[in-house]
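Design a sequence for this backbone.
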């Protein structure tokens, strides 16, 4: 279903809109071949429309992103790769989380960007699906998930419990005399401290709800010159380091779609040669350029639409009360055509 907006843009209703609850299967997922060997733990996701082979695809719940999504809206890599780099499992878009009121938590999942995590029948479908959780159940399920992971992480693992784990034959042959084994790693993880973070959590004291931005915050979208390139968002006049990736702060899929319609109207300097234009000097290769002057008005209209969509998302419930969102019409140069 499509609805035209004043600037000629489109907003789509979800392909499917379903009630949801969190499910999981905690697994001893692998063996760390140290001295002595140890066990790797993770939780395989279960949710409406999820692919039945997520464990084989290396897709897991990111427990800390789930906790963050309980506390405040935003875009989160709730579905992640076991290694902690979502793209390694083909997951290209985060889940957009909104808190429209005190009773609900809403996820919006991009159908193409999260295709490896979704049922095969959805492959090739445009748009997004919406999953709505009752907040009290979401919180209760998170307590149960954290509690179960902590329990498994602190209890020794027998050889029998590892019967379905990869390389268990080696373990039986070389190290069976060292059983039982300790859990020493939680997936996903990059810095190696995720298990310690898990054990520091109190399942009965989950993070409290908080607004995405403090009241009075000014959010601006535009092409802001920084060093050799452009940043696309400012918060109170400053680039929000280290969270400068603009979609990180979106609460609805519609904002993701509007963002791409905006930035797709211009191109980085290093890519201009693919469009029949002269590649910019090295000092300007991360700047954005318009391909033609006729695109300027469309780019400004798309920027205004993005600001409007984000503003509406921030106005939901207690997402970001008292926050101002606007488009800053920063001038862009037009790329020079090759002769």
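Sequence:
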């Amino acid at each position: 279903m499509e609805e035209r907006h004043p600037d000629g843009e489109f907003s789509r209703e979800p392909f499917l809109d379903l009630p949801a609850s969190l499910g999981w299967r905690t697994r001893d997922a692998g063996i760390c071949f140290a001295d002595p060997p140890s066990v790797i733990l993770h939780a395989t996701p279960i949710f409406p429309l999820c692919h039945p082979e997520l464990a084989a695809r290396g897709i897991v719940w990111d427990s800390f992103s789930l906790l963050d999504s309980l506390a405040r809206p935003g875009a989160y890599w709730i579905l992640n790769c076991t290694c902690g780099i979502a793209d390694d499992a083909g997951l290209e878009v985060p889940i957009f989380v909104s808190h429209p009121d005190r009773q609900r938590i809403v996820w919006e999942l991009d159908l193409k960007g999260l295709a490896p995590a979704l049922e095969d029948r959805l492959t090739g479908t445009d748009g997004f699906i919406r999953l709505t959780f009752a907040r009290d159940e979401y919180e209760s399920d998170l307590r149960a998930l954290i509690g179960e992971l902590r329990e498994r992480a602190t209890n020794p693992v027998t050889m029998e419990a590892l019967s379905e784990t990869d390389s268990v034959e080696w373990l039986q042959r070389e190290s069976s005399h060292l059983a039982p084994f300790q859990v020493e790693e939680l997936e996903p993880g990059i810095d190696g401290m995720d298990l310690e973070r898990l054990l520091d959590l109190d399942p009965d004291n989950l993070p409290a709800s908080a607004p995405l931005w403090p009241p009075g915050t000014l959010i601006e979208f535009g092409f802001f010159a920084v060093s050799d390139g452009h940043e696309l968002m400012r918060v109170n006049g400053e680039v929000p380091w280290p969270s400068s990736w603009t979609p990180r702060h979106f609460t609805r899929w519609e904002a993701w779609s509007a963002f791409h319609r905006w930035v797709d109207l211009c191109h980085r300097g290093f890519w201009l040669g693919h469009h029949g234009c002269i590649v910019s000097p090295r000092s300007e290769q991360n700047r954005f350029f318009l391909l033609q002057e006729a695109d300027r008005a469309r780019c400004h209209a798309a920027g205004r639409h993005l600001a409007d969509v984000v503003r509406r998302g921030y106005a939901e419930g207690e997402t970001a009360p008292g926050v101002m969102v606007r488009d800053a019409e920063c001038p862009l140069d037009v790329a020079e055509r090759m002769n």
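The chain has two domains: 2-200, 218-327.
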